[in-house]
Amino acid sequence: MTTIRRTAFVAAAALALVPLAAPQFRQILKVVGVGAAVKQFGPQINKEFNKLLNHTDTAQSSTKVVPILTVGLSTSTAVGAAQVMGPKAQVDKVEAVAQPSAELFGREFRIRGFIPVSSRDVLKDIKRVDNVAVTGVMDIKL
Description:
By secondary structure, the protein is an alpha+beta fold. It has helices at residues 3-17, 22-53, 88-91; strands at residues 62-71, 76-86, 96-104, 109-112, 115-117, 133-139.
């Protein structure tokens, strides 16, 4: 099945389910949409980050935009995009940014970490990519 046919089939099936499960559908659309948007428009988003930060990629300092995946007890959700920076060979290994979080003192404080990882399966194992840092975060308002 071609990509266009597959996309059309998924879209038609999703539209058929809207009246039955609108709240759940919206959440699914958000998650799928964020990942798809980052995959499709990552290079353009990266260009804008580089303009904002006045950065030009080199072999020693390369950048890339990847999805941010929240890390929960049994789920992972794409919630935005992050620009990562480091040596090109290391940046090329980054597939996503894992975002674990915790609450302190009840719910008074919330801390979040941003970890460049080499796999999108952040539930099994977080495989950190060394020498790469998160240099920008893009929130997506849905």
